[in-house]
Amino acid sequence: MAELKLSGIVKNFGAVRVLHGIDLAVQNGEMIVIVGASGCGKSTLLRIVAGLERATGGTVLIDDRDVTALEPAARDIAMVFQNYALYPHMRVFDNMAYGLRIRGLAKDDIKRRVQEAADLLGLSALLDRRPRELSGGQRQRVAMGRAIVREPKLFLFDEPLSNLDAKLRVAMRAEIKRLQRRLGVTSLFVTHDQVEAMTLGDRLVVMHEGRAAQIASPMEIFERPADTYVAGFIGSPAMNFLPATITEDGKGARLSDGNIIALPPGQFAAQPGQKVTLGIRPEHISLPGPLRLTTDLIEPLGSESVVHGRLASGETMALRLPGAPPSATVLEIAPRAEHLHVFDAETGKRLPPPA
Amino acid sequence: MQRKAIFNNKLLPYLLLAPQLAITFAFFFWPAGEAVWYSFIRQDAFGISTQFVWFENFTDLFADPLYHQVILNTVIFSVAVTVLAMGFALGLAVLADRHIRGKDGYRTLLIWPYAVAPAVAAILYIFLFHPDIGLIGRALKAAGVAWNYTLNGNQAMLVVVLAAAWKQVSYNFLFFLAGLQSIPRSVLEAAAIDGASPLHRFRTVIFPLLSPTTFFLLVINITYAFFDTFGIIDALTKGGPGNATQTLIYRAYIDGRVNLDIGSSSAQSVVLMIAVMALTLVQFRFIERKVHY
Ligand SMILES: Nc1ncnc2c1ncn2[C@@H]1O[C@H](COP(=O)(O)OP(=O)(O)OP(=O)(O)O)[C@@H](O)[C@H]1O
Ligand SMILES: [Mg+2]
Known about the structure:
The complex is a heterodimer.
Chain A: E1 4-13, E2 16-26, E3 31-36, H1 42-50, E4 57-62, E5 65-66, E6 77-80, H2 92-102, H3 107-121, H4 136-149, E7 154-158, H5 166-183, E8 186-191, H6 194-200, E9 203-208, E10 211-216, H7 218-223, H8 228-233, E11 240-246, E12 252-255, E13 260-262, E14 275-280, E15 285-300, E16 304-311, E17 316-322, E18 330-335, E19 341-344
Parallel strand pairs in A: 3-8, 3-9, 6-7, 7-8
Antiparallel strand pairs in A: 1-2, 1-4, 4-5, 9-10, 11-12, 11-14, 12-13, 14-19, 15-16, 15-18, 16-17
Helix pairs in contact in A: 2-3, 2-4, 3-4
Chain B: H1 12-38, E1 41-43, E2 50-52, H2 56-63, H3 65-97, H4 103-115, H5 118-129, H6 135-142, H7 153-181, H8 185-193, H9 198-227, H10 230-236, H11 248-258, H12 262-288
Antiparallel strand pairs in B: 1-2
The complex binds adenosine-5'-triphosphate and magnesium ion.
Adenosine-5'-triphosphate binds near residues 13, 39, 42, 44 and 192 of chain A.
């Protein structure tokens, strides 16, 4: 159990800067999920925390101790890798005991700790196997077990579920969450799967091109995304975006086809004439309304339907409607004002609430 | 689905194989068969009469103290060459596997010795170790060491071992490097996070994971030291001084070509053939099912 504090983490690979100053304070026992598109620097950030990669700038504090220059071994952390990185020539027991032996624990102690972890993870019957004699899910558990027995200050997970099939992934996701709660170990979990991120994290770090676009709780990120990137990244199908201009009275936004959409009162500090991007999630659109949508694809999902179409002004839109798919090819729709998001068209940032 | 033979003509496949079969027969089966035949025969000194003597050539051979000496030489030579060539190669491969500047050039240079002909390698070592003209030889003498490998048997053994090992380092290096690079980085990183020092990592993770490579190279190196070092020994010491650097293969050559004792030489060749077969068998038995894990 520990606190983790990152300040101004910068990382260059040669001339290329892949992390542009990340600040993050993680509380004791918190589970932070780092999520973002491929190549945005998630793994790099995690490896800097682990000590596998040297930061070009910034500091890493674990329990107020500066570990920026320390070797991984000196940081008292454990990591679960995407490919599990088990020692292929060692039995499951030895895989889990490896770190304990290096720490010079007594034989009985090692045995007890490994046994406990194995019981917790349902590995007791597999202790004599070698990694290649295990299924993917079992290997994943061994990797978890190897992290747990060490009782580290910090758990680091780099996409540990991405090599599992869909069903197992859901099961292991719940198991990791339960385990983390029970052990109360501060954790960083990297994934590019937004469902994993939403369900696992106490807080999320949404990364975009080497920057933390938003750090907040899952609901906060869903309800108040900080910019158009976060808004489009979290949620499925993705949020719809419509370019618009704020009306003279500042109470509405005019779409390119002249339709005016009322803004929720008292939520956004919008200047008359300002160019904005309106965001509306597919589930926050109702019938009937002023906008005409020509449907071109309907996905019935049973309890609801996802309708894709095109507005008269040319923008594509997706909406989720409860019940059976509509039969009409032209729908008259209305964004629900209370769920409207307004972003500055130029910077992509969410407009602040009025002062 | 099984494809039927593409050739309709029954003769054509044999015709296409014929050159290879002819070469194998002419340069391998025929001489090998002759060696087996001659090993049971004794000729008088003038080559006039021959006599079938059953296993007498073999019993004489193993009763000969000189042959015992040669066996011992071979064992010492092979063990020394194998240990040196593999040890050095492993060290160099570990260095090359690290992310060092100019590693590509370094790797290329390390591969060169393998391409050098044995005679050229021997001349290189003469220029290094010759007591009068050799770079190191003269330095040793200047430093007060009684260095002369043309007279001192142990020193001669040392020089042929060095030359033979040097030539084999490249080959071992390539395999060790490939072996090292096939170890996933994340496994080593996991060990580092588990708290293992670089040395401990090498001992408990890298070396065990290299064991299939190591075992393969062990057999290859012993085979090399036994059979493939004739050129180096011949060019460097001619088996001397005395019989100090005569190995089994060199002795077979001396008895056959210099002493013209075809019977004994053939018997020695048969002994060597059996040794090759044994080594090949070991290789197949153990390499097929991987060592250790
Ligand atoms: N050792 C390296 N040398 C040079 N560039 C690197 C190195 N490691 C990563 N990068 C670059 O840094 C960027 C971030 O990589 P990183 O592995 O952190 O991405 P990621 O967010 O984990 O992506 P993914 O979801 O695909 O795993 C990428 O553009 C990558 O090409
Ligand atoms: Mg990654």
